[in-house]
Amino acid sequence: MRHRREKISSTVANKIRTGGIVGVYTLSAVAALIALSAGFIFGYDVLTQMDGFAAEIRVEGIGRLSEKEILEQAEISPGVNLFSLNPFLIRKRLLAHPWVASAEVDFQMHAKVTLRIVEQVPLAVVDLGRQFILNAEGFIFKEKSDRDRMDLPVIEGLEYSDIPLPGDREEVPFGAVKKFLALGGGPDSLLNHGTIQKIRVDRDLGLSIEAFGNGTVIKLGYHDYPEKIRSLGRILAYCRQADTFNKLRWIDLNDLNRIVVNPLRDAAENGDKKEA
User: Fold this and answer.
1) Which of 183 and 28 is assigned the larger pLDDT?
2) CATH number given to 56-119
3) Does domain 122-275 have CATH number 3.40.50.11690?
4) Number of CB atoms found within 10 A of residue 110's CB
5) How far is Cα 82 from Cα 220, in angstroms, rounded to an integer?
6) Is the CB of residue 196 less than 8 Å from the CB of residue 211?
7) DSSP string, 22-73
């Protein structure tokens, strides 16, 4: 019995000694970790406040926005310390600007930092009672302000429910607007974004376009826009030769087999229409 008690006491004592050693090692490791963390923090503070680490910032890809606006949006001040810059935070700030479609922050050697910007490409203005700017992907990216002076076609006749969010199914009226606008991107296009003043959406009849700055209305309906624009080109070429280009009230291209042209002089005199 006595021998057994001594054996138990010895085992307990060994466990206590072992636990004490482990505890000491654990405390030492924690203390070392705290000291190392403090050292990193101190070192980071020293680096971010030292002279000689001023970042050289370059901005690429801007056209509408200025370099000053980009740096202000990114909250980067002149002569900022390279080690104080957080690329993830900078990118997040840049993407918060409505005119910035995408942004990259590239850290390079010799303390150089490049901000690569892709700006939004405005396609048209959507009038929903309040005016909003539509981008090339067909999404509204900001409300139009007095500072947004752009010669863009104004879309009328849509409702808030017609404007899809990313991933939503497009309604027919808005889908027709996008298809038509996609055809007019080039400056040499007959109906490009510079020659169109208004796009009117009729839920039953489709699109009507006011273009060329002379009040001419082109009725296009919902389908076959490429073919209808080619037909329009032939009609306008004839009207230019006949010196009646600026005297057109409207051209109805809904039915390509029955194109109706309504000149202003005929509308004013007797309301006659001509079929092409």
Assistant:
1) 183
2) 3.10.20.310
3) yes
4) 6
5) 57
6) yes
7) HHHHHHHHHHHHHHHHHHHHHHHHHHHH-TT-B-EEEEES-SSS-HHHHHHH
* DSSP code at position 164: P
Residues 6 or more apart in contact with residue 33 via CB below 8 angstroms: none
For the record, the structure tokens of 4 come out as 């057994």
CB–CB of 145/127 below 8 Å?
no
As separate numbers, helices (DSSP H) first and strands (DSSP E) second, the chain gives 6, 13
Q: Three-class SS string for 119-145?
A: ECCEEEEEECCCEEEEECCCCEEEECC
Rounded to whole angstroms, the Cα distance separating 84 from 47 reads 8
Domain boundaries defined on the chain: 1-49, 56-119, 122-275
Return the sign of the alpha-carbon dihedral for residues 142, 147, 153, 155.
positive
Indicate the average pLDDT of the chain. 81
Q: Count CB-CB contacts under 10 A for residue 99.
A: 20
pLDDT digits (tens, 9 = 90+) for 226-236: 999 999 988 88
Q: What are phi and psi of 135, to 5 degrees?
A: -95, 180
Q: Lowest mean pLDDT: which of 39-43, 182-186, 268-272? A: 39-43
Residue 181 one-letter amino acid: L
Q: Is residue 128 exposed (0-12), middle (13-18) or buried (19+ Cβ within 10 Å)?
A: middle
How many Å apart are CA 258 and CA 248, to the nearest integer?
17
The percentage of the chain sitting over the pLDDT mark of 90, rounded to a whole number, equals 42
